[in-house]
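Researcher: Hi, I'm a grad student and pretty new to this. My advisor asked me to get structures for two proteins we've been looking at. I'm not sure of the right format, so I'll just paste the first sequence and hope you can take it from there.
Model: That works fine. Here's the first sequence with its structure tokens right after it:
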Amino acid sequence: MDVNVNGLRRGSLNLPRLAFIGLAYFSLAPAIYLNMGFMETDADGPVMPLLFILITIAVLPTAISFAVMNNRRPSAGSVSTWLWESVSPSAGLWLGWVMITAYLVVCSIYPPAFGLFFNSLLSIFGVDTSVWTGIIGGILCVLICGYIAHRNIRLGAAVIGVLMVFEAGFVLLLSLFIVIKGGTLGHFTLTPFDPTAAKAGITGLSLAAIFAFLSMAGVDSVAPVAEEANTPKRLIPLATILITLLAGLYWTVTSYGFAISIPVQKVADYVNAGQLTPVLPIAHQYIDGLDILVPITGFTAAIASFGASVYAASRLMYSVAREGFLPSFFARLHSAHHTPWNAEATALGVALALFLLGTWWQGSVAGAFGYLAVIFVFFILIAYLSVNIANFVYHLRYRRSEFNWFMNGLIPVAGVAIDGYILYRAFFQAELGLPFQTGSSIVWFSLVWAAIGVLWVLWWRRRRDLASATLTVYA
């Protein structure tokens, strides 16, 4: 293993550890637990499997672009580095701002998720819950994740893997048990794959697609840890495609069981009653007292996903700081583990602050989760558009002799078209039609923050010659 005292510890992550981090970032169980109510009520139909299939297909071009660029230029800076080199330094620096924002925001959705499951577990034992008990749960989540992040990334990835396998295995077994029992729609019905089953039409499907996309917005997850991987030019592209296909298959299979478990109206009743997740009463209906495993696996899932998100956020901050565009504090490495602990601790602190701010703004822990999750969709879609642009432009400008019409032409063009459509339809159009506090303010906040990023880039352009900077990539 290359200790590399001047940088991240190389060779720390093999393919299984990369898969653990990537699949944990995908949030396998939380995607079902926390998104089912939003997806089925917005679509007004049991169409989760259909949405997961469509979103998996839609995100594949972007996953391929990530794989291609990771093969060419592995870097903790990920898309920021690639856009810097292929389009312009200013575009790359601005993308660094966008991606750091995306990763910090995704970190912030797991404390409220943990808080919700914490309240659910307390309720099972007859303890009265409130916003404050949810906040206590969220703080506990930050502390646990901080302990895991403080260790070396090999150990952290292993812990994340164990937690992820536990929660994903339970959800899969429960779903298969529901299918065996037949649910309420009958054995092997095709209704969950029928778009006409969504009574809310295209508008409802668009709203539901936001949360389906939120689940699949993980194809970028292993790119920031490329410099710590073993043979990153080979393993990072392989892991990127592998985790994307595995996650899509997992959600299609598991969501089918829950889609046929109870009528959509009952799902809506649970949501309107403030139920944490429809999966909890569904589990009680099918496995009785073992339903306690829902909040328990919710804990482990939130911690695993939070840990993977902290890795992504801290590596992006580290990569920007080592080039001199953030304080050197974020580029300092732990003396023993060679991990960017200062950046990791900052990501944990920002996640806690956003969680508390979101809870205050929305008036509930559940509201904070939904609000912050949609903000993440905007910023990560900008990154997804950018990786496709980088794939096309980089090969056109610097690898013209190796330009492949399919991998570097059709694939990135399709990725831009699909991601652009999702951004317009499922973010701008859907959210601007909602009340300011719960919907349209998300759009305006996102645009203002992106514009502040432009001002930040302009400030740096006056202070440094960006074109003369040489970025750090894996050699």
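Researcher: Oh nice, that was easy. Here's the second one.
Model: And its structure:
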Amino acid sequence: MRRGDTAIVAVRAEFFTKLGRDLKNRSPFRYTYIAELANDWIGYLPDLDAHKLGGYQVWTGYHSYAEPGTGERIVDEVVKLLKELGP
């Protein structure tokens, strides 16, 4: 969603910080806000580095349904959509 120089992105997961920062840095909008856990829940969404480190948030199971690389792919798609909206 866009309003002037502000974009609001809905993601149906809990983004790890690195993914959110990457999305905001690559967004063509001056202000980009991320609404997590919107319209569903697929668990924690770690970045590739976090997957390598391990931990309960990255194990496939009830708390995370995503395979490694899913977070980066979502960020790439969201940035593509934001560019289509254009500031």
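Researcher: Is there anything I should tell my advisor about the second?
Model: You could mention this: Residues 2-85 form one domain.
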